[in-house]
């Protein structure tokens, strides 16, 4: 029984590491390919760091029935996620980066946020539901 649970957690960690590296590879390719050769799309990494913070802060100080704080945390998290998708589009529309770099950054965003969600909900050990 212990071996099955241990194998599940190890395989989950390996899968999350692989997905994270694929997402980061897409973003680095959007910056470093000779056709694009601009490092502006790397600013989405700031959004990856900021994304889980509002929810973690709200979980830390929330009571069982505090839906007001939960709504504000979800609103802030959604704003951060939407900003990370909007930044490459705005940069491409302003012709700072090319559209190929924008598409690679958006694909990297999808993979990176899927990894963050899998880690956030897959390894959460709270017994009281989401909050």
Automatic annotation (TrEMBL):
GO terms for biological process: late endosome to vacuole transport via multivesicular body sorting pathway. It is found in: Membrane. Pfam families: Vps55. It is a multi-pass membrane protein. GO terms for cellular component: endosome; membrane. It comes from the Eukaryota. Signal peptide: none annotated. Keywords: Membrane, Transmembrane, Transmembrane helix. InterPro entries: Vps55/LEPROT. Its main location: membrane. The chain crosses the membrane at residues 7-32, 38-58, 70-91, 97-123. The keyword Methyltransferase does not apply. Belongs to the OB-RGRP/VPS55 family. This is Leptin receptor gene-related protein.
């Amino acid at each position: 029984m212990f071996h099955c649970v241990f194998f599940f957690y190890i395989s989950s960690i390996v899968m999350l590491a692989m997905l994270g590296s694929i997402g980061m590879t897409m973003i680095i390719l959007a910056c470093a390919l000779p056709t694009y050769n601009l490092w502006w799309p790397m600013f989405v990494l700031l959004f990856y760091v900021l994304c889980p913070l509002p929810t973690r802060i709200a979980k830390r100080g929330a009571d069982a029935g505090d839906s007001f704080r939960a709504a504000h945390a979800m609103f802030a998290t959604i704003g951060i996620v939407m900003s990370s998708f909007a930044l490459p589009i705005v940069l491409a529309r302003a012709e700072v980066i090319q559209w190929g770099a924008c598409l690679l950054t958006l694909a990297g965003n999808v993979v990176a946020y899927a990894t963050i969600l899998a880690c956030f909900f897959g390894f959460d050990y709270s017994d009281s539901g989401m909050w």
